[in-house]
Protein: Non-homologous end joining protein Ku
Amino acid sequence: MARSMWKGAISFGLVHIPVEMYPAASDQGLDLTMLDRRDFAPIGFKRYNKATGKEVSWDDIVKGYEYRDGEYVVLTDEDLRRANPEATQSIDILAFVNAEQVPLIYYEQPYYLAPGKGGDKVYALLRETLREVGKIGIANVVIRVKQHLAALVCVGDTIVLNTLRYPDEIRPVDELKIPAADSKAAQVTDKELQMAKALVEGMSEKWKPQQYHDTYREDVLALIKKKVAANQTKTLTEPEPEEEKPAKANVIDLVSLLQASLGKKPAAKAAADDDDDEPPPGKSAKPARHADDDDSDETPAPRARKAPAHAATHASAKRTTAAKSTSAKTATKAAAKPAAKAAPARRRKAA
Structure:
């Protein structure tokens, strides 16, 4: 069983509940040691006297407060306890509030509170009261040398003390470019909102904390195991040159992204026009001509010119006529393409 880090009592009106405090969270990060890259020897840090340069052992270290440049007041743990005995030994409940009124950004560090000797009944009384009224207790507590604002929360059968940040410890968001609710640049359509809600509903499930784990830490440990097996423990892996990433467009098609997230095919861009008259892609059916069609919509193919009447000889006239005819055929083919492109527009107009 872990050792308690704090012993005292919860002050609840005139009721005192003896409790012991235990850490509720543990750091499972990667513990990496700094090495000298020349011989891979561990790097050490020394506690040394800045006046003499000599190393100092833990037994010879005391704490002090610098009240003037280079001048210190020495403070022992007993001095800190005697400054305010009640503050260092009690959790004073100041008020009870609804849990949803305290934003998550205020929560800092959780601790378990277990009943001390003879405190089972009063501990259970506070626990059941918090459970019944659905509120949390806001309290003051001194841990080590800092006073904390704290929330007493009923979690199952345990009372959890979660330290809170003070308002002046929360950084303002004034300098951040947060879109306003009525901003035109960030305006959300009803279709986008409905699709996003459908995505949230599709991904909703019961809270199962056991299914979440630190996959990054697992991957790094697997890489370490692989390097050990390959006898590459002293290999320095250099970064590869980064590939240039294609520039991203500023305009984001949210509907396509949401549809893809929902497992649907993104709608074709042309479908957004809501035009039922256009033929399906891949078909080249010719639109029917109508009497009231506007001929200006179609670019006519240029006609071949006649051979000049004043040609000097029959041979030169024949050559000129052949050249003109070839040019006319080429121009006719080139003009056919824009005419085909303009065809859907003529059909819409006729409809």
Remarks:
- Residues 6-26+61-164 form a domain with the Ku70; Chain: A; Domain 2 fold (CATH 2.40.290.10).
- The chain has seven helices and nine strands.
